[in-house]
Amino acid sequence: MLTTAELFDRERVPEALRALLDVEFPWEVLALLDAFGRELQDRRQPGAVHPTAVVDGPLYMEEGAEVGPYAYLTGAVYLGRGAKIGHTAYVRGPVVLGPGAHVMHSSEAKRSLLLGGAKAPHFNYVGDSVIGHDVNLGAGVKLANFKTMGTPIAVEHQATGLRKFGAALGDGVSIGCNAVLSPGTLVGKRTIIYNLASVRGVIPADTIVKYAPTLQHAELRS
Hints:
The protein is mostly beta strands. It has helices at residues 4-7, 29-39, and strands at residues 54-56, 59-61, 66-67, 72-74, 77-79, 84-85, 90-97, 102-103, 108-114, 119-120, 125-127, 130-131, 136-137, 142-143, 153-155, 158-162, 167-169, 174-175, 180-181, 185-187, 192-193, 198-199, 202-203, 208-209. It has one domain (4-209): Hexapeptide repeat proteins (UDP N-Acetylglucosamine Acyltransferase, domain 1, 3 Solenoid), CATH 2.160.10. It contains two helices and 24 strands. Strands 1, 2, 4, 5, 7, 9, 11, 12, 14, 17, 19, 20, 22 and 23 form a 14-stranded parallel β-sheet that branches. A four-stranded parallel β-sheet has the order 3-6-8-10, with no helix packed on it. The N and C termini lie far apart (56 Å).
């Protein structure tokens, strides 16, 4: 089992957000995120929210944060220094973006924490998840947060007490285009997951995960 301390470098987290990681297991971050969102006050940077964006809930913005055109924010959203929400992004709070984190074109983030430098840049879904520093999600990557039958989510047979929990990705993880992570997946630091992979369970740090189907072909004859 990967703990919160094994996945994320707490010393890199701004002091205002550090308490969100004061738990043993990463899925416990979500309850702290809920409490953080309930206390969040609205503070926007002048001119930093595009006039076409819709903000329905408190939005707290540090210096250099931006909300792009046609983005839709609902619930409590915190944007750290230089964090960006891009064109047509959908953000359902409570969501916290650390310094320089991005949720960009047509991506959706729901009840999630993205630490500094984490990026969901194109057509991503991040649901009920915790994303480490400098993580990059390739285009179309989905972090699924709900099991098909709606049953409670366990990680390595350990109950989380949650029906919705996506993934916890350690610092420096990179995931290729159109990969899908099943509910309750934990990925250790610096691991690389190749495109199109379907991943579940607990993946250790410094691992490479590949999807390598057997390719079959037949010669066309007239």
